[in-house]
């Protein structure tokens, strides 16, 4: 391809999706969230309806913006299936992330702006300590997490309160990422207000209406997962029993 639309991923703005994916992956590597090519981030540019996707099997912390794939969205995004989408940019010699069908499922079903995938050890360990849902309540950091409660005055969904319970669905891992699509889709349909899913023995997918929100949720969840693992080691319940 002679014109690979480099202009789609070339910007001096650090907040441009192509730059953010690279800078955040480098930061996430430092937290052991995307070691050895694992994990990734996908961001939608709401102005252009372009979806930025990392290549597969590369060291995510060393990616350059020009390594990124770009998918063109459609009006209602109903064609956001991996076999139907149009890649408006395909870097030569690279293939899109194996997580592409999962990223596109989140964008299509939930109309989110960004999806973060990590192999955080807290996520993997917590997925082994709980069955269908990870649950935690009565921890201050829960207040950074979204709820399903609509505030008609503020015209937005409010965050969880201290005494609320954060619940994150858990699905079982499979040999190939694309095989997780149906289970992820079921989670999206059954729990449309969830902002994450744990994949047992694999990691976590976290999403938000913007990359800033997805990042806040991902950091908060990782902290809460780590805390929960320690609480369980101490024999403490992670959901405070009501008296
Ligand atoms: C050792 S990483 C295995 C694949 C995976 O789980 C992942 O998150 C990265 O996949 P990609 O195709 O984006 O490299
Ligand atoms: Zn993964």
UniProtKB/TrEMBL annotation:
<dbReference type="GO" id="GO:0008270">
    <property type="term" value="F:zinc ion binding"/>
</dbReference>
<keyword id="KW-0456">Lyase</keyword>
<feature type="binding site">
    <location>
        <position position="117"/>
    </location>
    <ligand>
        <name>Zn(2+)</name>
    </ligand>
</feature>
<comment type="similarity">
    <text>Belongs to the aldolase class II family. MtnB subfamily.</text>
</comment>
<keyword id="KW-0963">Cytoplasm</keyword>
<dbReference type="Pfam" id="PF00596">
    <property type="entry name" value="Aldolase_II"/>
</dbReference>
<comment type="function">
    <text>Catalyzes the dehydration of methylthioribulose-1-phosphate (MTRu-1-P) into 2,3-diketo-5-methylthiopentyl-1-phosphate (DK-MTP-1-P).</text>
</comment>
<dbReference type="InterPro" id="IPR027514">
    <property type="entry name" value="Salvage_MtnB_euk"/>
</dbReference>
<keyword id="KW-0862">Zinc</keyword>
<comment type="pathway">
    <text>Amino-acid biosynthesis; L-methionine biosynthesis via salvage pathway; L-methionine from S-methyl-5-thio-alpha-D-ribose 1-phosphate: step 2/6.</text>
</comment>
<dbReference type="InterPro" id="IPR036409">
    <property type="entry name" value="Aldolase_II/adducin_N_sf"/>
</dbReference>
<feature type="active site" description="Proton donor/acceptor">
    <location>
        <position position="140"/>
    </location>
</feature>
<keyword id="KW-0479">Metal-binding</keyword>
<keyword id="KW-0486">Methionine biosynthesis</keyword>
<dbReference type="GO" id="GO:0005737">
    <property type="term" value="C:cytoplasm"/>
</dbReference>
<feature type="binding site">
    <location>
        <position position="119"/>
    </location>
    <ligand>
        <name>Zn(2+)</name>
    </ligand>
</feature>
<feature type="binding site">
    <location>
        <position position="202"/>
    </location>
    <ligand>
        <name>Zn(2+)</name>
    </ligand>
</feature>
<protein>
    <recommendedName>
        <fullName>Methylthioribulose-1-phosphate dehydratase</fullName>
        <ecNumber>4.2.1.109</ecNumber>
    </recommendedName>
</protein>
<feature type="domain" description="Class II aldolase/adducin N-terminal">
    <location>
        <begin position="19"/>
        <end position="229"/>
    </location>
</feature>
<dbReference type="GO" id="GO:0046570">
    <property type="term" value="F:methylthioribulose 1-phosphate dehydratase activity"/>
</dbReference>
<feature type="binding site">
    <location>
        <position position="99"/>
    </location>
    <ligand>
        <name>substrate</name>
    </ligand>
</feature>
<dbReference type="InterPro" id="IPR001303">
    <property type="entry name" value="Aldolase_II/adducin_N"/>
</dbReference>
<dbReference type="InterPro" id="IPR017714">
    <property type="entry name" value="MethylthioRu-1-P_deHdtase_MtnB"/>
</dbReference>
<dbReference type="GO" id="GO:0019509">
    <property type="term" value="P:L-methionine salvage from methylthioadenosine"/>
</dbReference>
<keyword id="KW-0028">Amino-acid biosynthesis</keyword>
């Amino acid at each position: 391809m002679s014109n690979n639309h480099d202009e789609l991923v070339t910007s001096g703005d650090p907040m441009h999706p192509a730059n953010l994916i690279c800078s955040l992956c480098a930061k996430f590597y430092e937290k052991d969230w995307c070691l050895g090519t694992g994990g990734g981030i996908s961001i939608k540019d709401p102005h252009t309806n372009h979806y930025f996707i990392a290549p597969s099997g590369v060291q995510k912390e060393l990616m350059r913006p020009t390594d990124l794939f770009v998918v063109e969205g459609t009006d209602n995004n109903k064609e956001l299936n991996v076999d139907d989408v149009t890649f408006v940019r395909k870097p030569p010699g690279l293939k899109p992330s194996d997580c592409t069908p999962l990223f596109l499922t989140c964008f299509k079903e939930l109309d989110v702006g960004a999806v973060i995938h990590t192999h955080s050890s807290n996520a993997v360990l917590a997925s082994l300590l709980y069955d269908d849902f990870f649950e935690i309540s009565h921890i201050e950091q829960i207040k950074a997490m979204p709820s399903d409660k609509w505030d008609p005055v503020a015209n937005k969904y409010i965050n969880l309160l201290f005494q609320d319970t954060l619940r994150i669905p858990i699905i079982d891992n499979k040999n190939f990422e694309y095989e997780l699509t149906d289970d992820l889709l079921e989670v999206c349909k059954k729990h449309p207000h969830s902002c994450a899913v744990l994949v047992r023995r694999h990691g976590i997918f976290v999403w938000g209406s913007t990359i800033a929100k997805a990042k806040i949720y991902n950091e908060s969840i990782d902290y809460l997962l780590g805390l929960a693992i320690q609480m369980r080691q101490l024999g403490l319940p992670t959901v405070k029993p009501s008296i």
